[in-house]
Amino acid sequence: MTTYAVDAWAALADPTRREIFSRLAVRARSVTELASELPVSRPAVSQHLRVLKDADLVRVRPEGTRRIYAADPDGLRAMRAELETFWSAALTTFKMLAEAEPQESE
Amino acid sequence: MTTYAVDAWAALADPTRREIFSRLAVRARSVTELASELPVSRPAVSQHLRVLKDADLVRVRPEGTRRIYAADPDGLRAMRAELETFWSAALTTFKMLAEAEPQESE
DNA sequence: GGTAAACGTAAGTAGTAACTTACCGTTCGT
DNA sequence: ACGAACGGTAAGTTACTACTTACGTTTACC
Q1: Strands across the sheet with A29-30, in order?
Q2: Of A100 and B67, which is predicted with more confidence?
Q3: Which of B46, B49, B72, B75 has the fewest CB atoms within 10 Å of its CB?
Q4: How far is residue A48's CA from residue A55's CA, in Å, rounded to a whole number?
């Protein structure tokens, strides 16, 4: 059910969004705090956070008038698994090709 | 030197490109062969392959009139490392938050 | 209850990205 | 040498994305 995931790949492709996520992975922060650390406006941060939230990459916790965002490992799981698959497959294929053509000398 | 990397994140964010890469990770293929397996034209595949190549995610080997593309682990390395950093950081922060607020009941 | 802070959303814009068709160069086979 | 296969690039179009400013809503505080 939780596995709809609006594509964590696309969500983390944007540099600003990746920067936001990396900061939230270290420590939870409010929207205004994030905006103060970044070269974009606060609404821009809100929009990025929505994308991250739709990808299950962040969670929100209301705290008075502020909303504290934190990184959520859930959205990362599938992506991480797929990347590991890519990695091992690429490594295997790469090694096979390297053995198949042992040129380099001569 | 090889470590310029045109952002593997952005390169793999596109679904078609990710599909191309996943196929090349399993087995090397020519451009035409890739195009025949995908719902896009051959030039589109060529363009995707260029992006993947700029990100060091694929390599080419000429073979007669064909060009055989294969997945290259190089472009994946940095991205994989960064993702692992995200993962462990997110996990740690997530656990800390979970312990800090043991509500759920009441 | 009024004010201020925090945040989300609407509306509009500029830049980019993915795709198509058309064209050109290169390599192999006969 | 000629024709065909293969593939990269140019040009053009459409769609989306990241951003801004403006506005409305909610919560806290006095």
Answers
A1: A29-30, A66-71, A58-63
A2: B67
A3: B46
A4: 11
CATH number at A8-100? 1.10.10.10
Which residue is associated with the tokens 């490992």?
Answer: A73
Which pLDDT score, from 0 to 100, does residue A4 have? 46
- Sequence ranges of the domains in chain B: 8-100
CA distance A6 to A40: 23
Low-confidence ranges of chain B (pLDDT < 50): 1-4, 104-106
Contact A79, B12 (CB under 8 A): no
Closest partner CB to A83 (pick from B15, B83, B90): B83
* Residue carrying structure tokens 């952002």: B7
- Best B18, B93, B96, B103 residue to mutate vs chain A (most A CBs within 10 Å): B93
pLDDT above 50 for A76: yes
Question: How far is the C-alpha of B61 from the C-alpha of B8, rounded, in Å?
Answer: 21
The alpha carbon of residue A70 and the mean position of all alpha carbons in its chain are separated, in whole angstroms, by 13
Residue B68 CA distance to nucleotide C14 C1' (Å): 38
Phi-psi region of A15 (alpha: psi -120 to 50; beta: other; left: phi over 0): alpha
Grouping H, G, I as helix, E, B as strand and the rest as coil, residue A71 is strand
